[in-house]
Every structure is written in C-alpha cells, then in structure tokens.
Amino acid sequence: MSNLPVRKNTVYVFGHKNPDTDSTCAAITYAWLKNKLNPDKEYIPAVLGNINSETSYCLEYFGVEKPIKLESLKPKVADMRLERIQPVHEQESILEVVQKIVKTSGKTLPVADNRGRLMGIISITDLVPALISSQQNQLKELEIPISNLLHVLELSKLQGQLEDNIFRGNVYVFSDLTYYSQIAKNGLIICNRHEFGTGFMFSLEPKYIIVADVDDSSLLKPIQDYKGVIFTSKKNIYDLVQAVNLALPVSSLIKKDNLEYFALSEDIEDVKKNLITSKYRSYPVVNDHGKIAGMFSRSNLMEISPKEVILVDHNEKGQSIEGIETNRILEVIDHHRISDFQTMGPLFYRAEPVGSTNTIICKTYLENEMEIPKAMAGLMLSGILSDTLIFKSPTCTPEDKKLAQYLAKIAGVDIQEFGIKMLSKGENLVGIPPKTIITRDMKKFIMGNYKVSVSQVNVGDIDAYQEILGQVKSELESVCKDNDLDLSILMLTSLVMGGTELIIAGEEKWLAQVAFNMEKGKDEVFIEGMFSRKKQVVPKLMAMAYS
How far is CA 280 from CA 123, 261, 300, in A? Predict the structure, then answer.
C-alpha cells in the first residue's frame, strides 16, 4: 500500500495572540521574504486571533489578503502518515475483499457507502467463517450480485440478456440431479460440456446455466428457444462450486456497531487516550464529511513529524499558539525581552532593541539584497508606525525612523498623513464590547510569584470614553478573575492627549499603585508621556514583583 503523497514542507509564520499591526505585518512580510529565499518550503503567514480595524485598514490600503487564522498547532490525525487504501463496498465479493485485505498492514479495511462515507469495518477474522463455508458448498437461497459471479467465476456470456443485477436463487450441480428432480425458480445449473450437449437440463427451465471447462466458447452452439442466460468458464465444476460462495457479498460480515474511527481534525493526544482501552490495531480515518481518508495503526503514532514554525514579535509561550511546545521552532524574529523560552533543537534567533519587529525584517530584506515590493514596504512601514506610535514611543530608535522613511518612499505615502489615518482606525471604540476592548491586545506575563496581564488600546480623546469607563473597569475585574490573574492593567493610549490612562484591577493592585505612584485605593491614573507597554509599564511592574 502507498502512503499519502508528500507535499512541500509547510512552515507557519505568526505573531502573538491578540494580533496587532506589527505582528500581523511582520508575519506577512517575513513569510514573503522566506518564500523568495527558500522555495523548497512553503512559508504561510498566519494570525492567532481576529485582526483589528487598524491592521485591516493597512491590508486593504496596500491590497494584501488577510493571513489565515490558526486556532491550535497541536498534532492532529491529519499530521500522521496515513495509509492510503481502497475502501470496501458492501456488495463486493468475499474473494475481492480477501485479496485487498491481505495486502494491508493491519489486515482491516473500512467499508464505504455509495458516497464514500464510512459505514463499517471488516477484518480478516470476519472473513474466516465465510471462507470455511465456501468449503461446505452452501448453495441454497443465495443472493449474489451478477457482477461478482462474472468476476469470481470468470464467466463469459454465450447467450441471453442479463436483466437482473442480482442473482437470487439456488445453485445446482447437474450431475447431482435425477430424472425426477425439480429446481426452484430462477435456479442456476453448473454442468460440463457433455451434459450441456444432451439438452436434458433445458427441461428443468433454469434461468442461468454455466458450462465448465470451456476454453473456446465458439465451439458451443447457442440453444434456440432458450430464454435464459448461458455462461461459459475455463474453471472446472469443482472450482466453480467453491467459487460461488466466494462471490457472495461481504454485506453480512461487516461490523457496523460501536465503530472505532477517528477524524482528521482530532488531536493526537485524545487519540492516544482512546487507544488505551481499544482492542483493535488499525483504525479508519474520516474527513469532516465522513468520507474515508485512510487508515492508521498504533505504530503510526510514533511517526508524527512536528510542524515547523517561525515566531515573529514574541517568544513567550503564554503569548503564542496552543501546542507551541510540540512544534519545531525554526526561527524567532523579535524586539522583546526573552522569557520562558525553550525549543526542541537549535534555531536562528534574532532580537534587537528597536521599536518594531518590522524594522528587523526590513534590515533582513536589505541584507539579502532583496528588492522590496510596494505592498511589502507599506506593511513594514505600517508595523513600524503602529508600534512606535509614529515615533512618539520611547521604544523608537533612530533606526526605526531611518528605515520608515526609506519604506515610505517605496510605498509612496506620507508618513504623518498615513500614520495618523492608520492610528485613527483603531480609536473608535463606540459599540465595541468592553471585553473585546480589553482582550484584543492583551499580553500575559509571569512576574515572580504574580500572573499579570497588560492590555493596550489606542484612542483619540480619552475624555470621550468616560461614559463606558465604568463598564470597562467592571469587565477588567472579570477578565482578571476568569484568567486566574493577580493583576490586570488596561492602557488607553492617546496621541492627542500625549499619554496613557492606566486602569487596574485584581487582588494585587498594589503592584501597579506603587510602581506608578498612584494614590492608595485608586484604580486609574493618567500618565503623561506614557506610550510603551514594553518600556514604561512591564519593567516597572517586574521591578516591584521582584523587590
């Protein structure tokens, strides 16, 4: 049996959960570059959540499709090397199924209905009773597809028209019949050439006649006035009688109850748990429509290759996709601190203290002397302007500004005009549920003994959102509790007002209150000149947590 065809190796490139403009654009632009540099692999940009309105504006402006959305990269059944098989159909003959099944590794085959969907399974042990009965010449009250008889008994039609698709009746050996014998309606008689030549059997009015030991059908003459069907076969009478039972359909032998099968979308972890109590060795696999996709055995579970991924704009496990620890991380391109980071093997890691991951990616384009298309230049520029808040963030470096100006020329945009319009797309929070405001750009951190989240939202005039602040505070407390966090912080950052409104929630509010000189009992404060989560919030919280 052959395995499913080997496709070009796929590498997923993605940023952190709750994707922002920098992480999304970094995934797209770096995947584009890698596809040009290494055509032996397919680099697919992806996101780990819904794309916000700011990022959507950038993608639409430069005519770039949204990347795919990944929910999990845990190994699934689809990641196994499935055995490609030809499924059995319930009208197939016992002989055909035996010939198929002995060629499989697990000696088990799935049974498909006429639409290719799984309806049962059959194993070699299920066929043993039928093989034994074939030696006992069970020839009464049979129902056999005519196509099975033609194939298994190797019949050639000499005379007559086949009107039925299925033979229903008894099979007789002519030498066992006497002068006084009668046969049931629709009967089939097997005889040799001499017996056929006597013509006696025609008085019994069989519907079908098989003449054995005939190498050349042209030597037999058609029988006038006979309305049935005459076949010939090169097999002798004994072999024909044995073969009749082997032509029976396997429909009655199929297991249809309590089937053990798996879907392509199931997690390998769940499969392993189910196999602990299973008595079988091989299992059918179906797709989302119930159609058979292949088979696997227990040994196939040892052959699963981890998916290959590249992380951009993050490295912490808590900010990455579910199941990241089961995958092979090939590269990390980032501008954040290195935290709880472990890999299955060596990798390429590039982290620089700049304001945007796209600044690093732009440098990579230039280092490889890769011509930058307008769309890619536009997206890299978008990432830089978004993460540096048009160069106002303290994380911004001269390198960010220099490369942004270079990319703006290629993209054909004015930095200030485009940047302000882009950021304004993320400012309108009217009608957005408070939970969405909090979680769409929320990052979680482990700080000593504390679990902390910091969310950031760009707004215009903070005062315009006073009406919903009460709801936001209440929801922030709920998010903190639901995620089992000690402290949750929401940053409402405004370029117009030149700073950030800091809102806090959780049992350990004191961490933020002390770190940011807040009055005791207060849960919000405006901090002028605060724009960066990475440089102005996280370090102060970590200093307090470890003090």
Answer: 10, 10, 14
Query: What CATH number should be reported for the domain holding residue 451?
Result: 3.10.310.20
Residues 511, 400: Cα–Cα separation, whole Å: 32
Whole-number Å distance between alpha carbons of 311 and 329:
7
Confidence at residue 535, expressed as pLDDT on a 0 to 100 scale: 86
Does position 491 have pLDDT exceeding 50, yes or no? yes
Residue type, 76: K
Q: In what order do the strands lie in the sheet with 171-173?
A: 155-159, 229-233, 208-211, 188-191, 171-173
Distances (CA, A) of 533 to 127, 181, 310, 340, 514: 68, 99, 24, 19, 17
Residue whose pair of structure tokens reads 């770096």 in the numeric block: 30
Q: Residue 497 burial (CB < 10 Å; 0-12/13-18/19+)?
A: middle
CB neighbours of 432 closer than 8 A, spacing ≥ 6?
Answer: none
The verdict on 71 and 95 lying in the same domain is no
Does residue 89 sit in the same domain as residue 65? no
517: Cα separation from own chain's centroid? 49
Q: Which long-range contacts (CB under 8 A, 24 or more apart) does 538-542 make?
A: 538/337, 538/445, 538/454, 540/515, 540/516, 541/445, 541/447, 541/452, 541/454, 541/487, 541/489, 541/511, 541/512, 541/515, 542/445, 542/447, 542/448
Residues 283 and 364 placed together within one structural domain of the fold: no
pLDDT in tens, 277-291: 888 888 999 998 889
Query: Do 264 and 77 meet the contact criterion of CB atoms below 8 Å apart?
Result: yes
